[in-house]
Every structure is written in C-alpha cells, then in structure tokens.
Specification:
The chain has six helices and four strands. By secondary structure, it is α+β, with helices and mostly antiparallel strands. It has one domain: Spore Coat Polysaccharide Biosynthesis Protein SpsA, Chain A, CATH 3.90.550.10. Strands 1, 2, 3 and 4 form a four-stranded mixed β-sheet that branches.
Amino acid sequence: MDVARLTNGKPRVAALVAARTEDAAGVVPEWHGRPQPLVALYRATLAPELATLVAAGERRLQAVAERPDVRRLSAEVLRSVDPEGESFWSMNTPAELAVVLGRWRERRDDAL
C-alpha cells in the first residue's frame, strides 16, 4: 500500500501539491531525491501524452514526471507540512509494514 497517510492524517500535502499547479501540466513531489508519482497531481491535458507513452510500451509513471511541463516539488518545501515524509511511506512488503507500524506505536506510546 502506498500513500496511506496522504488521506489519513496528511491532507495538507495534497493541498500543497494542488496549490503549486498554476501553469504546470502536473506537480510531482520528490522525497529522498526520487519522484513520488503516486502523490502527484496531473492535469487532464496530459491524457493524450499518457496514452502515447503507454502505446509505446512505457509503464513507468515516472516518465510523466520527466516531462518539462511537469513541475517538481522539493522535499524542503514538503517538510513544511510533512516533516517526516509520512505521505511517502510504503507498506508494500511485510518488512515495510512492520517499520511503519512500529513508528505509529512509538508515537502512540509517547502520547500516553
């Protein structure tokens, strides 16, 4: 599971991404030097380009992030609303899930 915290506790990240679209075809956050295409915003005007990429065999969503009309949003800016980068935590494997659950338990215990 990717981006579990984006809707459950970190909606300000989504609001920040949306606020940065202005004249861009999309906005893709970066965390640890890597684009985060699942926490991005893409305008509908990119649909034909996406179709072309898929038809050409491209399967990486990051290919969209590489377009010159797609803006990157730096981790420095994102830290203002998500200091630990929770919006980008992955839980795709049992090991990743265990790490995230451990972090949540630590917070809960600290709050008690």
